[in-house]
Every structure is written in structure tokens, then in C-alpha cells.
Structures
1.
Amino acid sequence: MSYGRPAGLPHVDAKTPAVLVLAGPVTRDEVPGLCDDVRGLLEAGGTAVVVCDVGGLGPPGLGTVELLARLELAARRAGGRIRLRDPDPALHALLDLVGLRFQMEGQAEEREPPLGVEEEVEPGQPAV
């Protein structure tokens, strides 16, 4: 029996993640509503990721870290994750300092070297 291959490209159901824009300083009273928004976007969108545009949050502080941690927790409880778009370098450094890891848009994954970079180590060379 032979199998006839269908013509054209295979069907791929690509889902674009929903985007939640976080602008201005966010107060503690707004956090539960934003967590509800993340859960709602995950349930309605059919994707496992919500992109949080954090470019408009302003200077990062511990309030921003708490907000992002709560949004990630809400997303995890709903079966998804959040991904950060346009994070300030200071925010990225602050998240590293407190030990929180988030997916970032436009960056190589953690264990993947950037394209075009090759590392070569000769046996017997001291570690740098």
C-alpha cells in the first residue's frame, strides 16, 4: 500500500501570543487586576505564553520585580508563562540579582551561544 503525500505545505497552526502592555508605575492595587488579565489572555488565546511589554514601566525597582513575579505565578497557575518584551537593561540586571529568570524576546536562549561566536579550547590551556 502506498501513501500519497498531500500537495503544498503541511498545515501548521501557529498561534501568536497575546500581548499585555504594562505602562507607567503600577500600584499594588492594580496588581490583582493585571494577574486576572494574564489568566484571561491565557484562557482566551489558546497559547501558553503571554508577552508582557515592559518598556513603559519606567525605572525598575522592587515593586516592578514583585509585579513580574506575581504575573509569572498567575500565568503558571493557569498553565502558561510570561515573556518580557523590551526590558530595560537595569531591569534585566535587577531580575538576575534577585534570582528570577524570565523568557526575554529577541535574546538567545540561555545555553545557546549567539550566532557567529565560536569558542575553541586547546587541551592543557588554563581556564580563563
2.
Amino acid sequence: MNSLWPIIVGGVLPAIFWGITAIFQKQSATATGSAVYLIAFGTACAFTGLIAALVWRPAPWSIEGLGFAATAGACFALGTGLISFALFAYGVPVSRLAPIWSCNVLVTLAIGALYLGEASEINTVKLAAGTLLILLGALLVSSA
């Protein structure tokens, strides 16, 4: 298997889809508000999950797996709802908020290191440099 394939499937394509998502989220927020957006978004996610279950034949369901998925969904919905609210209520340009969202990788990294025990796999020099670049980039782009 080509070593780039997982990077494309799990990194490049999601980044493209999430970038496109932000544009439609802004359009939805100005047309309907955050609650309707979350309902439509959740319905689309559920429908896509049903199709994926038919195509990928996932592992058997478990209470633990469902709990983790529901928690992830709740966290995602809260973040997404807050973004839609800010877009709708305050009229913030999506181009100013999107760079700040990119800082989510720092939260994931910290939780992965502490909660999942992945700290031993982290190069702290690269982590510090990357963190600084992400924060500087987010500040620079969001203030453009």
C-alpha cells in the first residue's frame, strides 16, 4: 500500500471537506440560524453513517463504542453550534474564525498525550515549534 494513501484519505480529503463545510455553515447560519443548522447537519451525518455502515461493514456495535461516539458527537455539536451562533448573531466573517479552529489540533494533541498515553511518542522540540507556528499563523490569518 502506498504510504501517502492514508494521509490523503485521513488528512487531505477531510481538510478539503471541512473547509467546504465552513462555507456552507456560514450560508446556513445567515439563512436559518444555528439550531436549524445543527438539526440538518446531524441528519446528514446520520444518513452518511447509514450509508457507510452498508459499504464498510463496521465492527459490531458496543455500548462503550456508542458512548464514545455520542460524546464525540456532543462535543462536535457544541463546537459547531457555537460557531454557527457566532456567525449568525455577531456576523463574524468565516475567514476570521476558521484560522482559530485550526488550533483544535493542539487540544487533540494535549488530550491524546495525557488521556491516551501518547506522550512518549511526541518529540517535544517539534511540538513546541509546531505549537508556536500554529498559534502565530492563527493570529496572523485571523487578523488579516
3.
Amino acid sequence: MTVRELDAAGIHDPALRAAYTRCRVLNARHGRTYFLATRLLPVDRRPAVHALYGFARRADDIVDDLDSTATPGERARALLDLEDRLEAGLRGAPAAEPVIRALADTAGRYAIDHRLFTDFLRSMRSDLTVGGYASYEELGRYMHGSAAVIGLQMLPVLGTVVPREEAAPHAAALGVAFQLTNFLRDVGEDLDRGRLYLPAELLAAHGADRERFEWSRNTGVRDSRIREVVRAAAAHNRTVYRAALPGISLLAPVSRPCVRTAFVLYSGILDAIEADGYAVLHRRAVVPRRRRAAVALDGLVRAVAVRTVGRRRADAMAAARSAGPSRPREVGAPAPVREEAV
């Protein structure tokens, strides 16, 4: 399948093909939900998504690899080095690192704004020194670089049926919604790294604080105040999903099944958290395999339907061109094929 994807995308240089393949491996290994949704895109668009994921994963590993003995200073220098090499790659310099080679190629193919990568790396660097946030407003500034820009990077690859700037706020909101869900799912693991992405104002509103979260994580004892914090955070997360939802219909029809599937699977993590009594400090909530399979199948059906309509439309247009000047349609003749919304 990798060969088919690369051929469809017009990627023929052997070194570049190897770079994209490396990014695909990272996506399949570490981003199960993301990778599953990506499989619903047309084959020619998948390599670009793998490249975007691969670079984000590379930066995330520098910051969060628990098996690494690197100090915060060493991690900061590694991020700066990564940024220097990315900037050189975006300017056209040869890149030795696969994820940079693939990302630079993708950015050029889809005219992705380079500032989106700069903003992303800025937020990654802040993770090395910032362990908490006072308010949702403060957290939002961090999430612009860590999440919103991911949605904006994806938008040129997915395509839109409206001017891109009209779809951009929804794409940014979806990136934020996904990351808020990750924060809730991974709150225990993040605490182990010295971070808490639930704002202090939210904790205080429910009579909790960071020390109580750490105590619960270390002792395994549940606390009703923590449960209410997580419940409120999940409710806030759902409002962001609602803000993002209208953006799916603004995407190119062939991309909608992919994004809809990711939307349903990620928001389904909130359902799993609720079903587990909001015990995120002690267990990692997951969407059941049967549910994942059902959502993926629905996405596949939608993807096939859109592509079938697209092929019929293309065939009809080709037939019309070969038939010469258009003639009035006879009474009772079938209407032209029209692209359906998904």
C-alpha cells in the first residue's frame, strides 16, 4: 500500500520515498486513531498526512520520551537543532533526517505556511519549562501552537469547497478539541512528566488543586472533587467539538469521511471517560475495538460512495466532451450526476 500511495502522490525520488515511508511507520505505530482515519483519504493525499504526523511525533519524542536520560537543557538544544534543520529544509537545503525531508516536500507541494511549524515548535519548547496553566485563556495560547496549527497544516492537504480562510477557524478548533481529549485521557501520564494541562482556575472552582491530583495519582485513591473537575473539563471539550463540527462540510468531499471518522473516534474517548466514572488518573480510557471497527466501516462506506460519485461524474464529463457540442436533454433522460455531501 505504501508504494501505491507514493506512486499516486507523484513521489518518485528513492530517498524521498524512503522518508515518507518512515513517516508512515511512525503514524501507524504511535497514532492509531489518526492512522485509521488517514486510511480513508484518497491514496495520493495520505503521504502528506504521514509527513505532518511524522514531524510532530519527532518533536514530541524529544520533549516527552520518558526513556531518555536527556536533561531539559539538552532537550531544548535538540529542539532548536531540529528547528534549524527544518528551516534549512524548507529553504530547499538537502535534509538528512527523513521526517524533515518529507515535511519540507509536503510544505512545498501544498504551500503550507511555514509559520505554522515555527508556532508548533515554540509550544513544544514551552513544555520543557511550563508545568501548568492558570486559565483556559492561558492554555489556549499554548494550544494555538500545539494543536490549532495542526488543523491548519492539514487544511491544504484535505482541500476545501470554500475559501480556505472560511474553513480555517473550524480546522483550528478541531485540532484543539482533539488535544483537549488527549489531555483528559493522558492526565495521569502527564502528571508523571510534571505537567497538568487542566487550568488551575478549573481545579479551584471544584475545590481541588494540583497537590490533590498528585496525591490521587500516587495513592490510587479516587476523589469526588477530581471527578467533578474532569467532568467539567469534558463538558468544555464537547463545546469545542461542536464549534469544529460545521467545518467538516466545508472540506473537499473526498476528505470528509476521514475527518468525520477522526471526529467520532476522538470524541468517543470522552464517552469512554464518562463511562469509566472519570477515573482518568488511574486508567487510560479507550474506545472499545468493536466501536472503533463500526466507525471505521461507516467511514469506509462513505469514502467509497464519494469516490464512486466522483468517478461517475468524471466519466460523464469525459463522455460529454467526446460527444461534441452539448444538446438539450431529452424529456425523461436522467439528470447529470451531482456530487453528494457526506
4.
Amino acid sequence: MIKKLNKENMGTSNLGWLESRFHFSFAQYYNPQNINFGCLRVLNDDIIHPDSGFDTHPHENMEIVTYITQGELTHKDSMGNEEILTRGEVQYLSAGDGIFHSEHNLNITKDLKLLQIWILPPKKGLPRLYGSHRFKKEERENKLLNIVSSQNGEAPIKLYQDVNFYVSELDASKELRYEINPNRQIYFVQIEGSSTVNEIVLENGDACEISEENLLKINAIENSHFLFIEMEKR
């Protein structure tokens, strides 16, 4: 079963310095029928305008992955980490009993675009984690790149939760396939371009929930950039 989620039906916010599309209930957007999908609690498609950003703020008992799609993200946190990340690169943290951090677009002319993804941890109070990985474009060109996994997985980034994140930049007319194991489900986000996912058309910004399927078949209608999260079905 595949449930298509049109971007036009998602929650939105425009704070002037920040424009967001909310895949799930967040901030002023609240829909009691749309709180989470399995362990996926938040997925925000954010545009942070020049010389602005999120000042220092706390997180706890949440695993957060940030996937940059345009511009430069400048990160600082209470663990002493400070760095700048660009397109295709990933920042992650498992907040445990509490982390303070800030995220800014310090460029004075160019927007920063990113996906902010929150995953519910398997239990509270786990040791804090922070890190990043600088993936290269060729690692995701016309192939599936596993960027995040569980601690027992094979991805460079490892969370506590039993999840796998995959990304790809797929050339027009090319196809990729992914086998879905029993009792697993997928949340798929079309970041750029357009694709068919098991023959359902997704335009940039659309998403879909996939369950009760054993194969994911992705065909790029035009040059296509996408991310999907594979997780235990709940």
C-alpha cells in the first residue's frame, strides 16, 4: 500500500527568515491524525534565508538528522562541536539527556535548504551522540547510498533507533529497486525533480508512506533527488 502525500496539503510556516513545510504536526501546525509515521516524528523541509538561523536551543531524548540540499549550514553545540556543512552532507545527534545547539546560514546572499528529521529513540536517557559525514556526490549518483543506520548497521552514521536512511540523485529515465523486508515500512521524500514510486508520480516536495509492499521501484521522470527512511512497521 502506498499513500501519496501532496506537498500542497502539508503544513507550512513563513517567519520571514525561515520558510518551512511540515510533513508531520510541528510548531503551529497541528493535525491529530498526522503526528508520526512509525518512529519518524518530524520531517521539516526548511529554507533558511541569508544571515539568519536557529539560535542556541535545547533538545532531549530525540535523534535528529539534518540533510543539506543547498547552501551552507554552520553548527555549534554544547559539546564543543563547530563546523560548516554543504549539499549532500549530513549532521546528526542523539540528544539523550540534553544538548544545546545552534544552526545558522551565515551567507549574506544565498539561501540554505535542508531536511530536518527527528527520530524517536528506542528509549530515553541514552548516551549523547553527535557527528557529521561529508558524503560525495558520486556516492549517490544513480545508486542508493545508505547514509544512516542503526548501531548494528553499515552506514557511516549510526543512530540508536532501528532505521535506515537512503539518498540518491538519479538521472532521468533510470531506475532503482529496493527490497522491503517483512514488517518494515518506508517514508519517501521527493527532494528535487520527479519520479514514479511503484508507478505513483511524485513531484518535488511530495512524499509517500509505503507499507505492505515487498519491493520499491523508483523511476526518474527527470533528474531526481530523493531520500527515504526504512523502519520497523508500527
